[in-house]
Structures are given as structure tokens and as C-alpha cells.
Write a structure and sequence with these properties.
Blueprint (H helix, E strand, L loop, with lengths): L3 E2 L1 H17 L1 H5 L11 H17 L6 H15 L2 H18 L6 E2 H18 L8 H18 L3 H16 L2 H4 L1 H6 L4 H18 L34 E8 L7 H14 E8 L4 E7 L2 H9 L3 E9 H14 L3 E9 L2 H9 L4 E4 L8 H10 L2 E7 L6 H6 L7 E4 L5 H9 L7 H13 L2 E7 L4 E3 L2 E3 L4 E4 L4 E5 L2 H12 L6 E6 L5 H14 L4 E6 L7 E5 L1
Parallel strand pairs: 7-8, 7-9, 9-10, 16-17
Antiparallel strand pairs: 1-2, 3-5, 3-6, 4-5, 11-14, 11-18, 12-13, 14-15, 16-18
Helix pairs in contact: 1-3, 1-4, 1-11, 3-4, 3-5, 4-5, 5-6, 6-7, 7-8, 7-11, 8-11, 12-13, 18-19
């Protein structure tokens, strides 16, 4: 191996990093501390890198500058979730240095690039927390200074950095008590070690030989979820295709469901293929819906087939925008579920991005949505703490003025939207919305995907969990009982209204029974049940 890298080799390194993270995204997802079924650090990092590589592959030039510009742009557009945004900032720092290299990259150049990546990452986070991916990139950056002086080849250079990064990663449980309790290392840090190992693999054709220890059971992984969201600008795949597979054939196996998912990813994007041998739910954007249906028919019968022409939807949207004068204010919200989508549209939100838990929209998705809203200034309600950074980053890739209101849940988003005043200034609206958020307590009910101890509570796989904005408050075996217990715990003395959004797995009868029990227990409080249709979470609760 030589002491320099040209554009062709750099391209291979960037591609290899994505491939390695993609191969190991389940392992990274499984390291998420919270045992909810939305551990998606690996998925978000993989999709961020996929966007970066796709943009790079569209670049025909092999100059270092062109490759870096394209790779950085793709990472910025595709960044999803906090882990994806931080990864994109690390890439931004690395590329900012490498793109200035005239001919070939030296070991010292790459060392400076990694240091710039660490600086960008830390600046992207308002309150940096040690024991996370930030700690790992900082450790690698510091090691790169020393390694650039002693390493004779790039192989030696990256081996030293990866070894030091892995050693630091193993110390993260001692930096964050929540990691120690869960018995895992930091998920984002593990992803970063895979990225650097991907660089190494492209240069040598082999892995480093360094043992990766995650301190987590390998069979305890989250569902292999794929992002499901709308993007109607620059449409590559025209038909939004959704259906269920029912009455699944006896010969069908779990492996066949995995094969179906792989086939769908070959003919489209935005793939969702989840379920078991009783029922499978499928969503894909494709130009060949006939093939998607044909693949599925090999597993069982089809039901609830819906195929929408997104090209025609986009044409109609553009025609409508061209007729209307641009207004001063617009609003965008992120939500998952037919009912929640309707709730936000009913209170005058211009555009609802399908996403949230398990489906974090990227910065580009949010910017694309903003471009569709015929307004100069657009308030954005992420409604999930893992989407706030992506929403803020979207400001860099749209000409619209985005005002991100840091809503961390659907109830906060609804309250913030209701505080909007079309006659007030941006600052007045922002102040009113933040004030509205502060008066809301949110809760949610879901199930545990692994056994652990979190917030001092022992949680077993399959337990029903009641959570507030920050922690697990209660667990149980029954959804209804756990929900009642959760509401009892988050009710405030001055609470007068409780709104419960019930998810796609809850029937209207189930919701009615829960409402009756809540009204009996709390006769002085107004209890409202609203269909949300959200996946993953049985109930989302708002207390005001």
C-alpha cells in the first residue's frame, strides 16, 4: 500500500464505508439503549451514507474535489435522525479538507480531515454529550495527529485510528450510566468505527483484524425497518404501491419475506416490508407495481391494494401552487398514521411528512416538503427528538425560511400548531408555540424488543411499556391496564384534558373500553379518543 490516495481510491473508500455500515446496521440498531421497537441508529446512518454514495456515483469526474463535493452534498441531503445528521457533519468536515487537495491525498491530509470532521460534529450539537459518537470521533481525531507522524502507510494509519476508536468505544459505558445499565456500547460510535473500517477494507481488501465487542446479545435485534416517506419532487419512482399479504401459504417461510423485501428494494425505494407468517404489510415506490404484486403473490393472497400515481399528484400540486399567490406563513408537520395526518391537516398544516418513529425523514425530505408549500416562511414541527436536527439542517438546502419548533411528540406538535397566529410576527409565533409546548405532557405505550434494565425498571421482551418524554414509567402485560397506569403517573394536579390517539393495532372498541375506564377513574377530566393510526405505538397521550 502506498502513502497517497487518488480520486479513484477515495471513491472506493466512501463506497466501502456505506457497504460495511449497511451490512451491520442491524447490529448497530440493536445497541440502542431504549428497548422500544424504533432503535434506528444503524438504519439512519446507513441511509445517510447511501444518499452520499448515490450522489457521488452520479458524479462522472474522478477528481478529488468533485468526489468530495458530491459525497458531502449527498450526505447533507440524506441525513436522517441525530446519528445521521452528526455523521453528515463528520463527512462535511472531512470533505472540506480533502477537496482542497490538488493531486493526491497524503496521510497528513487525511489526519487533518478527520480533525475537521470532529470539529464540525461538535459544533452541530448544542450540548455535546460524552460517551457518544462525538467522543469516538474526537478520540480518532486526536489519534490521527500522532498516527500521521508515525504511520508509514495508510494501512498503518487507519489501523491505529480504528484500534484507538474501538478502545474508546469500549469505555463509553463508563461515560454514560444508561449504556452501562443496558450492557451495550454507544450505537453511533459503533457505526463510526464501521465507517473507518470500511475505509480500511477498501485499501486492503480485508478487515482490520480488530475484535469488535458490543456487549449485546446478537439475536436481540430490532425489526429490519425501512424508511417510509413521501417525496414528490424529482420523482424517480412514480407509483406508490401499498398492500397486505394475507392467507399466507403453508410453504412460505420467514426467509421468503426477507427475499421479498430484497426484491422490492431492487425495483424501487421507500420500502416497508414487515410482518410474519400471519400478515405482511408492504409499501414501495416503484415504476413496476406489477412486479411488486407478482412477487407478493408467490407468498399468499393480496388485500387492500392501493396504487397511486405520484407523478400526477405532483402535476396537480404544481398547478395549484402556480395559481395561488405565495402566502407569508406555512406549516409542515411530521407524523406517522392516517389519523394523525388528518389531525394536522384539519388544523391547517399545509403538508404532513409521513414519518416519525422507525421512519425518520431526511433533511432533504423536509426541504422538499418545504419547496411544495407556497409560503415564504414555514414553521416545521418535527414531533420527534430524533428529527429536530434533520429539520434544522434542511435550512441549508431550501430557499424557504424554515422556523423549526423543537416539538418532540405529536401532542406537542398539535399544541404548537394551535398556538399559531397568522397576524403575529415570526418571533411572536415562535414564543407562543414554545409556551404551548411547555404546558403539554406526553406519553406513549408500546412494547419492548429486548430484555434490559432502564430507568431502574426491569423490562422483558414483549412487555407493554408506558413512557413519558424521557423514560419508562411503567410496564405490564396488558395494553389497556398499562395505559391507565401511565396516564395516572403523568397526570398533573391542574390537568383538565386528556387526548388519547389510538394506533393501527387498536380497534375502535378497544379505544372505547379504555375511554370508559378512564372516565370512571377521572370524572373531572375531559377524556377524548382520536384515531391516530400510528404504527409501533398502541397509544399516544396528551395531557393538558
Amino acid at each position: 500500500m502506498g502513502k497517497t490516495i487518488n480520486g479513484s481510491t477515495l471513491r472506493k473508500m466512501f463506497s466501502s464505508a456505506f457497504s460495511l455500515v449497511e451490512e451491520n446496521k442491524k447490529n448497530i440498531d440493536a445497541l440502542n439503549v431504549f428497548p422500544v421497537p424504533d432503535g434506528d441508529t444503524g438504519t439512519n446512518m446507513s441511509l445517510t451514507l447511501k444518499s452520499a454514495v448515490s450522489e457521488m456515483n452520479a458524479c462522472e469526474s474522478n477528481t478529488i474535489e468533485s468526489i468530495c463535493v458530491a459525497y458531502n452534498r449527498g450526505a447533507l441531503k440524506g441525513a436522517r435522525g441525530n446519528s445521521g445528521v452528526i455523521t453528515s457533519q463528520i463527512i462535511k468536515g472531512i470533505c472540506s479538507v480533502l477537496m482542497t487537495v490538488q493531486s493526491e491525498i497524503t496521510i497528513k491530509d487525511f489526519a487533518k480531515a478527520i480533525q475537521a470532521g470532529a470539529e464540525k460534529a461538535y459544533k452541530a450539537v448544542t450540548v455535546p454529550k460524552e460517551g457518544t459518537i462525538l467522543t469516538i470521533i474526537k478520540a480518532m481525531a486526536e489519534k490521527s495527529k500522532q498516527a500521521s507522524r508515525s504511520a508509514k502507510t495508510f494501512e498503518d494509519f487507519f489501523h491505529e485510528i480504528i484500534s484507538h476508536g474501538e478502545a474508546t468505544l469500549q469505555m463509553t459505558p463508563d461515560m454514560l450510566p444508561v449504556l452501562k445499565k443496558a450492557g451495550v456500547v454507544d450505537a453511533g460510535g459503533r457505526g463510526l468505527v464501521y465507517i473507518m473500517s470500511g475505509f480500511y477494507k477498501a485499501l486492503t481488501g480485508e478487515m482490520t483484524g480488530i475484535e469488535f465487542v458490543d456487549n449485546v446479545e446478537k439475536d436481540v435485534t430490532s425489526e429490519d425497518m425501512h424508511v417510509n416517506y413521501e417525496s414528490l419532487a424529482d420523482i424517480k419512482f412514480a407509483y406508490c404501491t401499498e398492500f397486505f399479504i394475507i392467507n399466507i401459504y403453508e410453504k412460505t417461510t420467514d426467509a421468503d419475506i426477507n427475499t421479498l423485501r430484497s426484491r422490492l428494494m431492487e425495483i424501487g425505494d421507500c420500502v416497508l416490508c414487515i410482518g410474519d407468517l400471519q400478515l405482511v404489510k408492504v409499501h414501495v415506490h416503484t415504476n413496476e407495481p406489477n412486479r411488486a404484486l407478482g412477487y407478493a403473490l408467490q407468498l399468499g393472497e393480496l388485500n387492500g391494494v392501493k396504487i397511486e400515481n405520484m407523478l400526477e399528484q405532483n402535476r396537480q400540486l404544481r398547478k395549484q401552487q402556480e395559481k395561488e399567490p405565495m402566502k407569508e406563513y406555512g406549516m409542515i408537520a411530521v407524523a406517522a398514521g392516517e389519523g394523525l395526518n388528518s389531525v394536522f391537516k384539519d388544523i391547517d398544516v399545509d403538508y404532513v411528512i409521513s414519518g416519525g418513529q422507525t421512519m425518520n425523514p431526511s433533511a432533504n425530505d423536509i426541504a422538499t416538503a418545504a419547496d411544495k408549500v407556497n409560503a415564504k416562511n414555514i414553521f416545521v414541527f418535527p414531533n420527534n427528538k430524533n428529527i429536530i436536527m434533520s429539520a434544522e439542517q434542511a435550512n441549508d438546502i431550501t430557499d424557504k425560511n424554515l422556523i423549526v419548533i423543537p416539538t418532540k411528540s405529536v401532542p406537542e406538535g398539535v399544541s404548537a400548531v394551535l398556538a399559531f397566529d397568522g397576524t403575529a410576527s415570526i418571533e411572536e409565533n415562535k414564543e407562543n408555540m414554545l409556551d404551548a409546548i411547555s404546558n403539554v405532557r406526553s406519553g406513549s405505550v408500546t412494547y419492548a424488543v429486548r430484555t434490559t434494565n432502564v430507568d431502574g425498571i426491569d423490562v422483558k421482551v414483549g412487555d407493554i411499556m408506558g413512557l413519558d418524554e424521557h423514560s419508562v414509567l411503567t410496564t405490564g402485560n396488558q395494553v389497556c391496564d398499562t395505559t391507565i397506569d401511565l396516564i395516572d403517573k403523568i397526570l398533573t394536579p391542574d390537568a383538565s384534558n386528556v387526548t388519547v390517539f389510538y394506533g393501527e393495532g387498536i380497534t375502535e372498541e378497544d379505544a372505547s373500553i379504555l375511554q370508559s375506564k378512564l372516565e370512571e377513574a377521572h370524572p373531572d377530566i375531559d377524556i377524548s379518543m382520536v384515531f391516530g393510526g400510528q404504527p409501533v405505538y398502541y397509544y399516544i397521550i396528551s395531557v393538558e
